[in-house]
C-alpha cells in the first residue's frame, strides 16, 4: 500500500527566511503533485512533477523530485505572509486519477 | 473558463439520512474523482469516473456510491449517514490524458448531526 509522509506537520517561520518541506513516498510512482489549501478553501494546484530530477519554480516556491529516493521537496525562499497555508503533496500513477495525499504541512509565516 | 462546480456547498443532515452531492467538471474534462477530507483522516480517495465508468475505488464502505453522466457531470451518494461522514467532499476533474493537473472544486461541506 502506497504511503505518503510529509514533514514537518507544522512549520512556523519568520518572514524573509528559507525553509523546506519534505515529502516521502513508499512505492514507485509516476507523478507527484504539490497543492496549497487555505482555511476553508479548496486545493490549489502548485506543481506537477513527472520525472526524476524535475525541478519547477513559481515565485518563492520551488519543487523538486528524486524518484530514486522517493522524495520530493518544496522549498520556500524569503517567505512572505501570503504563503501561510497548508501544503499537501500527493502521489499517483498513470492510467487513473487516484492520488494518495500526504498529511499536509501547516505553514505559518510570522511577520 | 469555468472551474469545477460543486453543489451544494454546505449541508446539514441527521444520522440515517442520505445525501447526494453534485459535481460539474471543467468543460472538456472527462475524468471526475471524489475525495473526502476530515481532520482525522486527511484527504482520502473515494472513487474516479471516466466516460461514465468507475475506473477506481477507494476503501470506503458500500454506503458511498457515485455515478457519472454522459455530459461528464458526476454525483456521489452517501446512504445511512453516520456522524463520521461529516467532512469536506472534494471533486476534481482532469483531461482524458494523464498525467495532467487535477483541478479541484470548492467542495461540499457535510455536517451529520
Count of beta strands of chain A = 11
* Strand residue percentage of chain B: over 45%
Mean pLDDT of chain B: 93
Portion in helices of chain A: under 10%
Low-confidence stretches of chain A are: none
What is Rg of chain A?
Answer: 13 Å
What is the CA-based Rg of chain B, rounded? 13 Å
| Euclidean distance between termini CA atoms of chain A | 41 Å
Number of helices of chain A: 0
Distance between the termini of chain B: 37 Å
Overall form of chain A? globular
Main β-sheet of chain B, in a few words?
Answer: 7 strands, mixed
Quaternary structure annotation: heterodimer
Structural class of chain A: mainly beta
What does this structure look like?
- The complex is a heterodimer of chains A (111) and B (113).
- Chain A has strands spanning 4-7, 10-14, 19-25, 31-37, 43-49, 55-58, 61-66, 71-76, 85-92, 99-101, 105-110.
- Chain A has 111 residues and is an all-beta fold.
- In chain A, the strands form 2 sheets. In chain A, strands 2, 4, 5, 9, 10 and 11 form a 6-stranded mixed beta sheet that branches. In chain A, strands 1-3-8-7-6 form a 5-stranded antiparallel beta sheet, with no helix packed on it.
- Chain A starts with a strand and ends with a strand.
- With 113 residues, chain B is mostly beta strands.
- Chain B contains no helices and 11 strands.
- The radius of gyration of chain B is 13 Å and the shape is globular.
- The termini of chain B are far apart.
- Chains A and B meet through β4, β5, β9 and β10 of A and β4, β5, β9 and β10 of B.
Amino acid at each position: 500500500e502506497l504511503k505518503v509522509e510529509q514533514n514537518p506537520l507544522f512549520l512556523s517561520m519568520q518572514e524573509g527566511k528559507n525553509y523546506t518541506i519534505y515529502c516521502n513516498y513508499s512505492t514507485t510512482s509516476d507523478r507527484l503533485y504539490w497543492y496549497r489549501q487555505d482555511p476553508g478553501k479548496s486545493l490549489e494546484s502548485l506543481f506537477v512533477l513527472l520525472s526524476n530530477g524535475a525541478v519547477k519554480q513559481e515565485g518563492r516556491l520551488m519543487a523538486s523530485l528524486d524518484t530514486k529516493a522517493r522524495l520530493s521537496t518544496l522549498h520556500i525562499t524569503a517567505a512572505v505572509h501570503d504563503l501561510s497555508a497548508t501544503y499537501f503533496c500527493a502521489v499517483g500513477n498513470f492510467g487513473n486519477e487516484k492520488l494518495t495525499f500526504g498529511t499536509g504541512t501547516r505553514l505559518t509565516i510570522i511577520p | 473558463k469555468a472551474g469545477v462546480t460543486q453543489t451544494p456547498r454546505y449541508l446539514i443532515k441527521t444520522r440515517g439520512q442520505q445525501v447526494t452531492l453534485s459535481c460539474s467538471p471543467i468543460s472538456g474534462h472527462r475524468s471526475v474523482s471524489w475525495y473526502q477530507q476530515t481532520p482525522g483522516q486527511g484527504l482520502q480517495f473515494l472513487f474516479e469516473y471516466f466516460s461514465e465508468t468507475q475506473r477506481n475505488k477507494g476503501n470506503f464502505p458500500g454506503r458511498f456510491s457515485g455515478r457519472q453522466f454522459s455530459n461528464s457531470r458526476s454525483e456521489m451518494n452517501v446512504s445511512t449517514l453516520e456522524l463520521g461522514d461529516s467532512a469536506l467532499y472534494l471533486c476534481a476533474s482532469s483531461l482524458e490524458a494523464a498525467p495532467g493537473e487535477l483541478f479541484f472544486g470548492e467542495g461540499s461541506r457535510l455536517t451529520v448531526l
